[in-house]
Design brief:
There is one protein chain. The protein is mainly alpha-helical and 138 residues long. 79% of the residues lie in helices and 0% in strands. The protein contains 5 helices and no strands. The chain starts with 10 loop residues before the first helix and ends in a 7-residue tail after the last helix.
Length: 138
């Protein structure tokens, strides 16, 4: 990604940031939908059972807020969450269908968002370094 004129963000950088944030928001939307669907699918489930799914939604909100300013920290949190989902799968010995769903809905989007946040942070660091005045003696 090349810097635009006067160190401005390029379209690709805007798209990377937007796509990373969209993935995090989509993850939050997934958990909200999944939480409210529990009582509809499992008729004996209580509201408290459904509200347990709100914890991942709150984690998504925290990561989104952190990622708005501290992109590298958000990337680390997203990679840690991806690893935690994989560990969760091994602990509960998921069947192949569950692995496919979780890889599609959780693991891959979180890992991809982490990569995009990392790339955005690198581009921002390069832009800041280029914007700093250079000492003529160097």
């Amino acid at each position: 990604m090349k810097d635009g004129p006067a160190g401005q963000r390029t379209v690709i950088e805007h798209l990377a940031r937007t796509f990373a944030r969209a993935l995090v928001i989509a993850g939050g939307a997934f958990w909200v939908i999944a939480t409210f669907a529990v009582p509809l699918v499992y008729h004996d489930a209580t509201t408290i059972d459904a509200s347990i799914g709100m914890w991942p939604f709150l984690a998504v909100l925290v990561i989104l807020v952190i990622g708005w300013k501290y992109e590298r920290l958000a990337a680390v949190l997203l990679l840690a969450a991806s690893a935690a989902v994989v560990a969760w799968g091994f602990m509960y010995t998921w069947e192949p269908g569950v692995w496919i769903v979780m890889a599609t809905v959780l693991i891959a989007p979180m890992a991809l968002a982490a990569v995009l946040f990392t790339l955005s942070a690198r581009a921002e660091e390069r832009r800041r370094a280029a914007a700093e005045p250079q000492d003529p003696a160097e």
